[in-house]
Amino acid sequence: PEAKALLRTSGINAGYGTMQVLWGVDLDVRAGETVLLLGANGAGKTTFLKTLVGLIEARNGSIVLADEDVTRTRSSDRMRRGMTYMSELAVFPDLSIEENILIGAQALGHARPQSRLEELYGLFPVLRDKRRDAASSLSGGQRKMLGIAKALAADPKLLVMDEPSAGLSPLFVKEVLRILGSLRERGLALLIAEQNIGFLEVATRVFVLEGGRIRFSGTVAEMADNEALRRAYFGLK
Ligand code: ATP
């Protein structure tokens, strides 16, 4: 039998003013799964993720997280229920690296922030070395790491990430992939919106968004079997 969904959206419509961007989006993530949401620029990936985490209100449809309907709840409620949105914008440049991580832990009342810190430094050694420095002193790639560490400090069940590869050199993309792989091994569920198909490497399932509609969903192997998708996303004949 299929594993139960940790997150399930049904028929999500959303947009801005008179412009509708999302049209009936159905997507699910099971516990511990790594789901990739692929789509070109403007396909609606960011709009979908923001709707999911409560930064944009869904016009229709439903969002169920761990058996609770959260469609009309606040963003903070969805966080408490285990869904955290990773964004570099959530990093406070004037605070130190350690202060940023502790804010991530405290915002959700994590009981033992100090032990959480040690665990996160194990995952991101560069952040330990710079723990006392202002976040603004980090490179783009390091700031991305801090964004991930801050999101993880809240101990989520599902981490939602918008284009973690954006603006990163190939070396840093590799590093992000390595970290995501190790998070997956710890049982964390990931939902990653990307244009970079390098992320197929860590995905268990894929959803392809085009013009605000889900065009395909299935495993990576099923996607590779689909000739049109293969051409569009893998550049193969
Ligand atoms: P990208 O890779 O550029 O982030 P995306 O797939 O995430 O693309 P969205 O950012 O969700 O796509 O954008 C979908 C559509 O919504 C685009 O046509 C975009 O111009 C429009 N849009 C995005 N944000 C807003 C906004 N705040 N107000 C009005 N329109 C917006």
From TrEMBL:
One GO molecular-function annotation for this sequence?
A: branched-chain amino acid transmembrane transporter activity
Name the protein family. Answer: Belongs to the ABC transporter superfamily.
- Protein's name according to its UniProt entry: Branched-chain amino acid transport system ATP-binding protein
Swiss-Prot/TrEMBL keywords: Amino-acid transport, ATP-binding, Nucleotide-binding, Transport
Enumerate the Pfam families for this protein.
ABC_tran
ABC transporter domain spans which residues? 7-236
Its BP terms in the Gene Ontology are: L-amino acid transport
Kindly indicate whether the keyword ATP-binding belongs to this entry: yes
What CDD domains does its record include?
Answer: ABC_TM1139_LivF_branched
What InterPro entries does UniProt report for this protein, alphabetically?
AAA+_ATPase (IPR003593), ABC_transporter-like_ATP-bd (IPR003439), ABC_transporter-like_CS (IPR017871), BCAA_Transport_ATP-bd_LivF (IPR052156), P-loop_NTPase (IPR027417)
- The protein's organism comes out as Enhydrobacter aerosaccus
Which domain of life does the UniProt lineage start with? Bacteria
User: Which residues, if any, are the signal sequence?
Assistant: none
